[in-house]
Please model this.
Amino acid sequence: MYQDRFGQGITSQSARAVELYDDAVERMFALQPGGGTLIDEALDLDPTFALGHCAKARALAGKGDNAQARDYAARGRDLAANLPERERRHAQIICLVFHGESMAALDAVRQHAAAYPRDAVPLSFALGVYGLFGFGGFKDFRERQVELLETVAHAYGQDDGWFLASYGWALVEAARSDDGIPMLDRALALRPDNANAAHGRVHGYYEQGAAEEGEAFIEAWLPGYDRGAILHAHLAWHQALFALQRGDVERARGVYKDSIRPAVSQTLPMFTVIDCASFLLRASLAGCDLEAQQWAEVLRLVEERFSKPGIPFVNTHLAMVYGGVGDPEAMTNLEQGVAALLDEGKQPSGGVVADLCSGIAAYCGGRYQDAALLIRRTLPDLARLGGSNAQRDVYIDLAVSACVRAGDFEAAREVAKQRWTRRAGHLDDAWLDRQCSGAIRVTSAQTSLP
Model:
């Protein structure tokens, strides 16, 4: 029996197919393109390669082809039915993930990690801010990720770039940047083009309040990254966010136009909608005068790909888009759709998503006191939505702005100060003053996001 890069037995009729599989997994873990092509070559050499089919499912999902991903995952599971237990359980987990059985998949990952701690592929699906933990509705998902990774850390040591990047970023998100950043730096030293590690490192800069250093890091690292890679537009989003936080609105606007907006982004539609909606809202709150067509461009993507509500974190960004274009009918339909999904038990975040959508609707309708009340009461439970600390900060920005427009400057300062005294130190008094001045310039007749 052959072994994969993690030293585990793997069943295939071709040694070369296993080598191609290892290279593909390495590329996927580094969020570099090309993994799908390598897997195709592996499956040409061995069409019965069960874990090769599982890897193909992941590659297809990374391109947004979820239907084919489900087919390949099911084929991998079937081919693995009579293989050794590790491969069989590996394939079963992949199939659960791509068939939407998230809680069953998460339970299986925990059990599998205890038995096979170096089987990194199934483990990886539990991680990240959009993973099984992140989108599972857990208020403590960051701590749960760290706990799981701690249980397998003994199996990886200090020389596995994937594990260092995953563990390092998890620690950064769990308010342990001093522990996580050295791991991310080590992962980048091992493989400088590791986009997963670079992304985690950017979050480290954000959490430590190092906006200038973070922006400089991205400007140095990003030019070597393929614009068609899955994380290129999102790293540019971080770059634009740092520029906004420094008060350089024109720089931020330029990055958005060049690398983030739907016409130029080459990543998944979900990623594009989230990053565009969040950036445009933040830019608006910072006093940036946006053109109507910028929101309209994002709306077209929403109408093409998100005709009804689904994932809670995405739903709140749909609300931002409808607010940005000033479409109260679409906003009402979204609120009603979210309420229906909540009744069906299909919003893991619970009522947080409904309150945020309603809060954004209130804000856009000029009902700032209602908006402040609705959004502020979600703040303790925001993590149930998933997403990163940096991404969820947009809701804090909006809460601050709603308080200011409602005339409650003391509440605005309280909300803001709770954040900058714990983390993200660059969001300080100067940032709050910009938010306040931007909000004051807008009249109470505002019926869409500024």
